[in-house]
TrEMBL record:
Signal peptide: none annotated. One of its GO terms (cellular component) is membrane. The chain crosses the membrane at residues 20-42, 79-99, 135-156, 189-213, 225-243, 263-283. Gene3D superfamilies: Rhodopsin 7-helix transmembrane proteins. CDD domains: 7tm_classA_rhodopsin-like. The lineage of its organism: Eukaryota, Metazoa, Chordata, Craniata, Vertebrata. Pfam families: 7tm_1. Keywords: Membrane, Transmembrane, Transmembrane helix. One of its GO terms (molecular function) is G protein-coupled receptor activity. The keyword NAD does not apply. Residues 33-281 form the G-protein coupled receptors family 1 profile domain. This is Odorant receptor, family 90, subfamily A, member 1.
Length: 314
């Protein structure tokens, strides 16, 4: 799809207002949900000493950052249309880093479940809190290293005046060297094929372990279901890497609907997958759900006490 075409097409004021209202409302809802999950995690020591929940809350925080950055960029593109290249670089890189983090984090969580079910006697030795923090550092290194080179290449090939210009903030408008597009395709294939193989491996191992150990069937079944949900989440994350090609195809099928296609693509690819993390652990996991309910109940009780106290003061 011609980038210049994306730069020229604009929504009507009413359509732009409705689209921005929807994404901001979604952001507020997800921010409340994620904030509640994070507050529940840090209020109970049992969670931040458990590698499983440490990896989970890291993904929640990562998704919250990704969502905030992409929605901020979405809204700014309507308010200012063009923004400074330096700010655009920052927003795009943070969005790319956090988007890459999610599948790698999913793979780490699947491996932790595999160790817990298939090697239960060694789980406490292998999956320590310290090693989990090291894994999170490795996740960020794996996610940042390939794409930070985009910035270095741009600094080397563009003049400093370029970073003072204003552009419609799309990745191809900022990181323009053609070789960067090929590099991204290679790393996209490498990342997701690796994560896909990890999920398939861990799922099959847990499946065989469940058949062999009748006493662990229930926990193994839950682990299998969790990894299946991780697979669904991974499939949604993969959409972000094929979405440009899908947009081009849909543009030819439905000419004249480029803005609607881009908006639907944004909601499906970047917003919808962020609803899955709270569902996988916040709702399905009994331990976390119990503490989450206690947190919400205590919050409501505090509000009632405050209201009663303010009434008595009057």
């Amino acid at each position: 799809m011609d980038i210049s075409l994306l730069n020229l097409v604009r929504d009507t004021f009413t359509m732009a207002f409705v689209k921005n209202l929807i994404v901001v409302l979604v952001w507020l809802i997800l921010s409340y949900i994620n904030g509640t999950l994070v507050a529940t995690f840090f209020k109970h020591q049992a969670f931040y000493e458990d590698p499983r929940y440490i990896l989970f809350i890291h993904m929640v925080i990562n998704d919250a950052i990704q969502l905030t950055v992409t929605i901020t960029l979405f809204v700014l593109s309507y308010i200012f249309y063009k923004i400074n290249v330096s700010f655009c670089c920052f927003f795009i890189l943070v969005a790319v880093f956090t988007t890459r983090n999610t599948p790698v984090n999913l793979a780490s969580m699947a491996i932790e479940r595999y160790i817990a079910i298939c090697k239960p006697l060694r789980h406490n030795q292998i999956c320590t809190v310290r090693r989990t923090h090291m894994v999170i550092g490795l996740i960020w290194f794996i996610s940042v290293a390939p794409d930070i080179t985009d910035l270095f290449v741009t600094l080397a090939t563009e003049s400093l005046s370029f970073f003072h210009e204003s552009v419609f903030c799309l990745r191809p408008n900022v990181f323009k060297d053609p070789i960067l597009a090929y590099k991204r395709q290679v790393f996209d294939i490498l990342y997701f094929s690796s994560v896909f193989l990890v999920l398939v491996f861990t799922y099959l191992k847990i499946l065989f372990a469940a058949r062999a150990l009748s006493t662990e069937k229930m926990s193994a079944q839950k682990a299998r279901n969790t990894i299946l949900l991780h697979g669904a989440q991974l499939a949604m994350c993969m959409l972000s890497y094929i979405s440009p090609s899908v947009e081009i195809m849909l543009h030819f099928i439905f000419p004249g609907r480029i803005l609607q296609i881009r908006y639907a693509n944004y909601l499906i690819v970047y917003i919808l997958p962020r609803f899955l993390s709270p569902i996988i652990y916040g709702v399905r996991d009994k331990k976390f759900r119990r503490h989450l309910q206690m947190h919400l109940l205590s919050y409501r009780c505090r509000n009632i006490v405050k209201k009663v106290a303010s009434t008595n003061d009057l």
